[in-house]
Write a structure and sequence with these properties.
By secondary structure, the protein is of the alpha+beta class. The protein has a single domain (29-259), classed as Clam (outer membrane lipoprotein receptor (LolB), chain A). The chain contains four helices and 13 strands. Strands 1, 2, 3, 4, 5, 6, 7, 8, 9, 10, 11, 12 and 13 form a 13-stranded antiparallel sheet that branches. Helix 1 (44-56) runs antiparallel to helix 4. The two termini are 35 Å apart.
Length: 262
């Protein structure tokens, strides 16, 4: 399941310098609050289904958000990244601009059915001064080696769809356990009050998580946080959304090739 959300940066032109980030234990995510609430309805799977139904019932044409991402790639915990994301539902369109922590990509555009099915990428650093735009397969080998998730699976709705599918399968097969951890103020998501749930399972591969903790925004029902850890408790991936704005007014060329190269 968890080869998703965010597969960038890509293998473009230059290999980045490897910088070891602080261990996950030095990067606490959530602060508990004195709140005795339980999951609405009492069942985690039913709750997640209702959250997804709520999203789908809103007729959301697009959104903008800031995404915090940190992943372990090739056994190394990479530096954290902060990415400004613009999303349009029809046609499925994503524009990503790195605010902090860019390694290979500075801007990325993907529009379903356009540009030969490729992503358009403006490389970061020196490479970006030499080449304005390169094309990459959004689900190709370069992308798979660069992150857990492809750009075609981006956003709170896609994240929640994956969570629901895999957690339901785990429950039905009896191979996982789901716990409600209580209410948490997730400061990385703008100090949003969230329902915190954790699934533990036996990983099927060395790169698969044994522990998945998710954060569901109490007000919006969006999955705004996901933290993946291996059997030893080491961080595999962390994805947090903040400053989520629904149906924003985008720039006229937001999802056009002219937006990729500055």
């Amino acid at each position: 399941m968890y080869r998703l959300l965010f597969c960038l940066p890509l293998c473009l032109l230059l290999a980045p310098q490897s910088v070891e980030a602080p261990p996950a234990s030095e990067q606490p995510l959530a602060l508990p609050v004195a709140d005795a609430e339980s999951i609405p309805g009492g069942d985690a799977i039913d709750f997640l289904q209702k959250c997804l139904d709520h999203y789908n019932q809103q007729s959301i044409a697009g959104y903008s958000l800031i995404m915090h991402k940190q992943e372990r790639i090739g056994g190394k915990l990479q530096p954290s990244e902060e990415i400004e994301v613009s999303f349009r539902a029809k046609p499925y369109s994503v524009f990503m601009h790195w605010l902090r922590g860019e390694r290979l990509a500075e801007n990325v555009l993907y529009v379903a059915g356009m540009n030969g099915g490729k992503m358009l990428v403006h490389p970061a650093g020196i490479a970006g001064k030499l080449v304005k735009v390169v094309s990459r397969d959004p689900e190709g080998e370069d992308a798979r080696q660069s992150g857990r998730y492809p750009v075609t699976q981006l956003g709170p709705n896609k994240t929640l769809e994956r969570t629901l599918k895999d957690w339901k399968a785990g429950r039905n097969s009896g191979t996982s356990k789901i716990e409600f951890l209580g209410m948490r103020n997730l400061r990385e998501a703008g100090d949003r009050l969230c329902y915190a749930l954790r699934r533990t399972c036996t990983p099927s591969g060395t790169d698969d998580p044994a522990e998945i903790t998710i954060y569901i925004d109490k007000e919006t029902s969006f999955q705004v946080g996901t933290v993946l850890k291996d059997a030893d408790g080491k961080l595999l991936g962390e994805y947090i959304y903040r400053d989520v704005h629904l149906n924003p007014v985008f720039k006229p060329n937001q999802f056009e090739a002219s937006a990729v190269a500055p």
